[in-house]
Every structure is written in structure tokens, then in C-alpha cells.
Amino acid sequence: MFRSHTCGELRIQDVNKSVTLSGWVQTVRKFGSITFIDLRDRYGITQLLFSETLNEKLEANPLGREFVLQANGVVHERSNKNHNIPTGEIEIFVTDFNILNKSITPPFTIQDDTDGGDDLRMKYRFLDLRRQPVKNNLELRYAVGRSTRNYLHEHNFMDIETPFLIKSTPEGARDFVVPSRMNPGQFYALPQSPQTFKQLLMVSGYDRYYQIVKCFRDEDLRADRQPEFTQIDCEMAFVEQEDILNMFENLIKRIFKDVKNIDYNDAVERMTWEHAMWTYGNDKPDIRFDMNLCNLKFPAHTFPSQKDISSLINGNDFKVFDEAETVIAIAAPGCSEYTRKQTDELTEWVKRPQIGMKGLVYIKCNIDGTFKSSIDKFYSEEKLKNIANAVNAKAGDLIFILAGAEERTRKAASELRLYLGQQLGLRKPDEFKLLWVLDFPLFEYAEEENRWVARHHPFTSPKPSDIHTMINNNPVIENPTEYLKHPYANIKANAYDMVLNGNEIGGGSIRIYQKELQQKMFAALGMDEEEQHHKFGFLLGAFEYGAPPHGGIAFGFDRLCSILGGSESIRDFIAFPKNNSGRDVMIDAPSSIDKKQFEELQIKLDIKA
Amino acid sequence: MFRSHTCGELRIQDVNKSVTLSGWVQTVRKFGSITFIDLRDRYGITQLLFSETLNEKLEANPLGREFVLQANGVVHERSNKNHNIPTGEIEIFVTDFNILNKSITPPFTIQDDTDGGDDLRMKYRFLDLRRQPVKNNLELRYAVGRSTRNYLHEHNFMDIETPFLIKSTPEGARDFVVPSRMNPGQFYALPQSPQTFKQLLMVSGYDRYYQIVKCFRDEDLRADRQPEFTQIDCEMAFVEQEDILNMFENLIKRIFKDVKNIDYNDAVERMTWEHAMWTYGNDKPDIRFDMNLCNLKFPAHTFPSQKDISSLINGNDFKVFDEAETVIAIAAPGCSEYTRKQTDELTEWVKRPQIGMKGLVYIKCNIDGTFKSSIDKFYSEEKLKNIANAVNAKAGDLIFILAGAEERTRKAASELRLYLGQQLGLRKPDEFKLLWVLDFPLFEYAEEENRWVARHHPFTSPKPSDIHTMINNNPVIENPTEYLKHPYANIKANAYDMVLNGNEIGGGSIRIYQKELQQKMFAALGMDEEEQHHKFGFLLGAFEYGAPPHGGIAFGFDRLCSILGGSESIRDFIAFPKNNSGRDVMIDAPSSIDKKQFEELQIKLDIKA
Fold first, then answer.
1. Of residues B189, B593, B607, nearest to A184 (C-beta)
2. Does the interface ipTM go beyond 0.90?
3. B464 is in which domain, residue-wise?
4. Which end of chain A has less Cβ packing within 10 Å, N or C?
5. In CATH, what number is assigned to the domain containing residue B50?
6. Is residue B249 part of a domain?
7. CA-based nearest residue in chain B for residue A512
8. Residues A349/A355/A361/A367 CA torsion (nearest 10 deg)
């Protein structure tokens, strides 16, 4: 028996018990003839006291950091109590010990604030995983998974495993592929999601399916993307959008309760995609704070139902505004006293290539009711005041205005809003705000190919009221310059995204379940009948045998955990993550394979110079 | 809202309620002007009654098998109750209905005893999954998973995900590999098991890990093998073999209770590998029945500690026995009256190529105490009686004797025992008997390469008492013909298999956690230092930084489910299985990939003529 108790377990009530502990040496401290050792395991830290009778053995068997030690002893009350740790009232008076394994000096310290850089910690991930903050992250991840499974089980969902070796049907992201030795010349693909399989399970009558499942996308990586990632994947039959929204906002509320002990009793806000774009400049707004965008000017075809207030800025000989497609203002609350240095810094910030704006206009709404602006020579104080009213700015606020092409300007305004919100402390880390974004466009226009692409994926249903538009029109775009006039441009999707603090944590849709409509969708994406049959014949076939109405959602498990854990990086919540080149630097993968493997798989390299 | 209730929910108490049901049309029966429909969903079947007022609508919208139907109506008490189903006391008096989707005629009937053959059901797996027996299998699978997770959670295990894109280190089975686009010329491998990662987690201090996880092996397939399969994968630190056996026999007992409502209160039997081979002829004996093998003759080097009783048969001029390496007898209880036809059939059975014996000797132990044998001319009745005593045969039994080369004969005796046990009804389908098989040899001898191979895997520790033998001897086999005299031949592994009704459902070991011992193991397997470093440098490195003693086990989840479900085939318990060529015939995978995919991956085909 290696231990009678863990290192996080013993308390003052256990005094005088004989115990055996095993764990890692966190610290060794000598005071005269006495040696103190903090022994660490998954559950905590317990102080060991080695009296001078053990000095001879200690000298013969010197202990160092991260040695694995087994100690027998008796629980004593500490004279010098440590109230910061649960075991801090006791210590173990060691009677004998045994070094289970030695350790060479670790390349970085195993502490909350380690001295190890990112690369070193990735290479020695097995040591980084010993640090308490990383352990906390993995424990949170396990708790989120456990809470999810419990909730879904209580609601009659079944965990059903779908295959990992499937068929390559690239549509959107690239597939990872796997050569088949038994079928030379043919390849499996790793699933980007279990989408078609979960839909088949609905056709099979399984009604409520879920899986916490690995998915794979061969995309160029960014900090928050991994080639393999985990989804909470769900699907339900005989449901409408409302059923799904209710079921899954309650899942997230349950996770809040189980994992963070937060009672999220508020109704989850809902917002159309158009409102999100109009008011926040993006489709995953952080609604923990206001600072809404004010659209002083915008392309009418993009927001046909919105009121044009461009007369507030046009015709004042300020070319930047006059010539811009889009002009957007934001009021930063209480910032009217910003110094020149501060506004200059913000101007530099928006001029960085990542944001890409040419400049930043400001209007100070002074406390005394006067206005001061960088465009004073074009706009009278009265005109500035009218703009300030439109922006809903109050005395003491500072208005920022961005101007330029629609997409870039809106994105920049959205980024600026988040940046200011961060600076002003409005994005509180301990506040969580959920939001449903609804009514996305079903299609986006792909200019290079002059065809439609599915904004969500090709299995998403249009709104019921748009089905006849979709069925009864030819998806082909006759005149590329006027694609916005094509009836498909206005079709809305029966899709929904769940947003948490400005991050999309999940998305889904009511699916197409009629063969004719699915074929129309494939045709809209430029697939002829042969390609449809080759790639998705099994699904079209399944829709002929009594497919029920169904829909579902998938949550990004890694990201959900990272947001709940208060981190920007999903990597911190993955036990063995890959770096930005898709490498696992610890095991050094990917790597070369043997000649014999190439021969058996009947493939060879074809490296371009 | 598509439904107010499911098709398995309504009872006599619900009479007069207005309800809406949705489901699949199981049957349509017309009685005069009234139409009865059985409506089916995941939860059950409810009878719908369409009165003549709906006949016009029914004629305009004819219903067929597997149509998806939504029906509004009122719950009525049935006059003609069906006590075989929970909803059998009521029916729905339909007031209106709505066809949600049509179905063409399914290629086979959606019934417990379907008329569809294997191939057809695989192709239309989404329809086969509608059948109740298949649904029961997947529900059992989900229940086994749920029970496993609950038990392990209660025992402080953490579900930690390990990566799927890892490094190819083929040792034993072939890896599936995945070309890396971002690292041209390099490949990931899909894990054959998370073995090294779970060991790293122990080095990291995670102490109790589990995962229900997909694993991949590119092997030639048999009926009960799939290229992707699921493991219950577990590992613990600071444990000895006894801790693991206790923890995991209780897991299986818990599954018995949760899933089958069986109280398995007996102690789980334990048996050494040598005893299993000696007494049952294989290392996964079915101990639901006795019929132990009697080793009349055997190679002394294989069973050095067993008593030689070959004098019972040798020297009677019966060449078959005299010249055989191995002679094994079994007594079939109560079979002494078997006819010539029956013994001939059994002789043919052992002569089949799968068994490969040259013949079958029998001795009838007649009720009257006399003996009658196929070898009467060589053995006196007295001698037959002595053999019968050795075999522990009673009056009324029939003894079968096999003779030949050791391995083949032992395997044949084992197969014959199982076959007779099956025929005699001794392998009761509702009886479950667990068994631990212990003390396996650590190594097997690979003749072609004149080296050792790990019987379990290269991370399995020898018994503590054998560690010094392993460390202090050169693993190289100087004289191939005398490999049995090498000290490594007698090293026993700290490994254990769990056997259920003659099937290996799980296996594991206490692992090596010392760098020096691990290097010795790799060397024994013929790996030089460079190869060790290339393949397992990360693990050897990890062992330098304080690796704790640890061990674990993995259960074959698919097989465990199939045995609990009373089936021979794991395929019946997998939602979307592959056929014996590794194909998913439903989605038609694997398949060809695009030119663009080859270009991006920088590989090409190299098909042999």
C-alpha cells in the first residue's frame, strides 16, 4: 500500500493517527537539525517534519524538488499553523521514508507563477500539468463535461458514438484524410463534425442524441484554434427553434450552477443577426456593456429597414465622411477629459494593420455642455451637438467616429468598442451574459465562383416562410453585380448562435429534412446531381424513408471551458495541445513514417520544391 | 409544437386528454370504415383510431409504412385491450392529422424479425437502427457507459481527453496515419490506445484518469474486430496490482447491477495464466462449467511444475499417443450413450481446418462400470479405467482424447471443451462469471527476428521479484534453439486480464516507471538507443522527473456491451459499424479524394500492379 491518505486530506481531528503519504517534494527547508518538506499530490500539500533521528538516512538519500517520496509517520498539531491551506493545522512527524523515484532538476519551477516560457512548458507539458492553475483548468473541464452529461441524461438524451473514419466531403474547411491500406487508392476522412450522422440518427428515431466528441479541421491555425477540438454535439427530432433554445440555454445555466455556483436566473437575451451587426458591428456581441454603435452612414442595401441619418454629417465639406461608405460613432462614457496623448494612442491603435483604419475622429462632450472636436473646422458646435444626440452621448463622454468601407469600418468600430470597454473596465471577468443571435442570412455570396455558400452549413433549413422562395427560384445568379437582387439573398436561416461575453460558444439550426429542399440547397452551392449523389447520396436517400423534422446545436467545448475559466486561450484547457504549426512538440509529432508504411498504404511523397 | 406526449407515455389515467403525437407509421389496418394505425417512436407504440369522418382526408393523403405522422386527438379507453404493451389499454381517437414526411417502401421490414439480410441492413443502417433489437443494443451501450462514468466519478477518477493526432510508433499492430499539410512529408498517427498519454498524466500527478475513447488499429478484420473501436481506458498512480483488481472488479459488478440488475456478490475468481492454460487450454477460460482438461502428456519445459502422468498411456504400442508431444483428455458428462453418428460428427468437427486435428479418441464410461473405447485394442479395460480416473470421469461420461503438437492440440482441446459445453447447455446465456487471469509471461519469443516481444505491451512491468533478473541480464538471445533457457523466458508480468464467460473484456498491468528498466525493455524488443529516443524519448524523459508507481487497465467497450447484450458480434452494438473490408457501405467510405487534396498534402498514389 503506497498511501493511507492523500496530501489534501488530514485535519486537526486526525492528530495521533499513523499515516502513510506519497507524493512529490515541493520544497525542502532545513531549520537546524530539523527538515521540513512540503509533500504535494493532486489533492493538496501536507507538511512533513523530519527530526534529527532521520538525518543520517536523509544524508544518505538526499531529497530534491519533484522527488517521489513515500513517508510513514504520525499526525501532529502544528505550533505554527498555516491558515491558507486546508491541511495547515497539522504536520506529519515522519518515522520513516522511502524514495519511490528521483527527479533531475525540472527546467522550470512547478509553481503557480512559473519561470518557464511557453515553448519550454509545451515541450515539458507533463511537468506543466503539475502546476495548480493548469490542474484547475482540467478539473473545470471535467466538471463542465460531467454537468453537461448529467443535464442531457436527465432530459432523455442518449450518448451515441458516431464513426471517426468517414468520407471526405470538403465543403468549407479542409478534411484530414487517412489512406486505407485495405482499399488502396482510397481514403477515409476524419469528421469535421458528426453532422450527417446525427441527422441519420434522427431519421432512425433516436430523438435526442448527444456526444462530447473530437472533431478535426485542417485549417491554418491561430492562437485559439486547434486541428483537433472537442464539441458538445446535440440533435433533437420533432422540435422547432424555440424548443432548442429553451433546452440549451438551460444546459448552459445548469453548467453555470454546477461549475461556478452561479444562479443565472435572468432570461437569456435574444437578438437578430441584423440588430447585432447594426448595434454592435459583429454577430457575437459582448452585451455586458452598452456603448452601442451609432450608424451615421451605411449602405442601404445592407440594412434596408434602418433609418438614414446621414444628413447629420454629409455636405459639410469633410471629405472623409462625404466619401465614406460607412460612418460609425461610439460614445465612450466619462472620457471627455482624455488627453491628447490618449486620443493619439487610440488613433494609432485603429491605424494598426489588424484594424486598418485611416484615422479616428473624436468629439469631446465637455461637462459644461460645450463640444470640442478634431473636425471643428467642418462642423459647428450645433452640428456636433446633433451628432452627440444621435450617438446618445452625455456630457462628459468622448465620441469616436470611424469612416471607410462598410465591412472594414464596421469591424473596426466593433473592435474599438471592445477595446474601450476593456480599458474602461466594463467587461467584468466575473460577469457572464448569455445571448442568442437569431435570423442569420441562409446564404453568403462567393464572388470568385459566382455562387452561394451556406453561411452555417448545407443542412440548415431556411425559415419556414422562406421555403417557397427557395424551392421556386433558380439558385443560379445570372448577373453577378446584382446578386443582392437575387431572391436567395434575403432568405433567412432557421439558425441560432449562443454568445457568451462576446464569444460564440455554440451554434446550430433547424435542419432540412425534405429531399427536394436539400437538393435545392446543394444546387445553390454549385453541386450537380452527380456530385450530390457521390458526396451525400446516403443522406438524400435517408430523407426518402420518413425523415422527421429535427434540429440541433454544437458547443465548442474547449472555448466554453476557457471562458468559464476566465482565459483567452483554449490551449490552457487542453491536456496535450498542439502549437500553431499543428505540432505536438512534446512527442514530436507529426513525424516521418517507415518505408514499409508507405509500401503498405501504396502512397508516396510528392514534395514540391 | 410537434407533440404533447411520446408514443410510449399514455395510460388509462390519461383518458379524455387532448393530445398530439408524432411518430412513424408502423402498421395501417382498415376495418370497414375505420382505420387503425400503430404509431411508433423511440419510446413505444400507440394505437390511433381514424373514424370515417377522416376517410376523405385519408384518401387524399394516403398513409404508408414509415410515413412520419402528426396526429391530434383524444385519449380513449380501448375495448380490445393489448396487455403486451404499456400503452395497450388506450387508443387515440384522431381528430386531425398531418403528414410530416412520406416514405417510399423500405427495402426490409422494420420489425424484430426483419426480412433484411446483413448487407442490405448495413447499407440502410439508418433503417436498421429503427428496429427494436438494435435500439435495445444502443440503449444498453449507453447505460454501460453511464454506469461506468458514475462509478469512476464516485471514485475520484477524472475524464481527461488525450490527443487523436499523435506519432506513429508501430509496435505490434499497424497505425492508421494522417498526412500533415502544414508539415509536408510528415504524418500523424491515430492512437491504438492512449497508453503513453495516460502514463504521462500519472507523471503529471493526475492520479486517477479515465476516458471512454475511440482507438484505431489497421489490422485485417475479423467478424469481431473493427478498425475503430472504443475502450474504457483507466490509469491510477500509487497503486499495486491488488488495488487495481479491487477497483475494477467492482466497476464491472456495478455495471451488472445498473444495467442488468444483477447482484454479483461472489468474489471474482483468480487464476494464474499457467493454471488457465493447463486446465482450460487457453488464457480466457469460460468458468461457467468445469470439464477441465486432463493433461495425459505435455512438454515438460512448458509446464515445469506439473506432474507427469504419461505412464498411463505410453508404451501400449498406440503410436498416436506414443509419438504425440501432447495428449489431452476431456470428460463430457452424461454422454456415454452417444451414438456412432454423434462421435463421428465430433471427429469430423475436430478434423476441420480451423481445428486441424487428425482424429478423436473416445472412451465410453458406461453406467454399468464397464468401458468401451475406440482404442480398445491397445488399452485394457483396467488401463482405460485408470485414464478415466485421471480425467475424473464418472460412470455415464464420455471421454474425448486429442493428441498432437502442443500448441495445436491444446487449442483444439480448448475449442472442443467450449463446443461440448455449448452443446450440453452448460454455457448458460443468463449466467455471468468473472475471472482474473494473472501472472502472464512478460515476453514471448519472436522466432523470425530471434528477439523478445512484449506479450502485453512494452510498458508492462515485470513482477517486483523479477526486476533484478531483467536489469542484470543481457536480453540478447545468443542461442536461438535454447531461448527457453534465457533468464528472460521465465520473467512474469505484473499484468492481469479480466475474463467474462470466456471472453477477454479487459486487460492491464502495473507499468514500468523507472527509466533504466524501460530502456532495458526497449532493448529486449530490439530497439537501439536512437530508435528508443526517436519513438519514446518523451516517455523516457518524463521518467527522469519524478514518475510515480502506476498501473491501469483498458476494457473493450464494444465487446463488453455485446456480451452483456447476449450477442457474439460487437457490430450489433455499434451505431455505424464497418464491414470486414473496413468499409462503411452506407456512406461508401473510404473513397477517392480530389486532385487538390493530393496537391495540398504533397502525396501521390503508388499503386502496385
1. B607
2. yes
3. 441-492+514-547
4. C
5. 2.40.50.140
6. yes
7. B101
8. -60
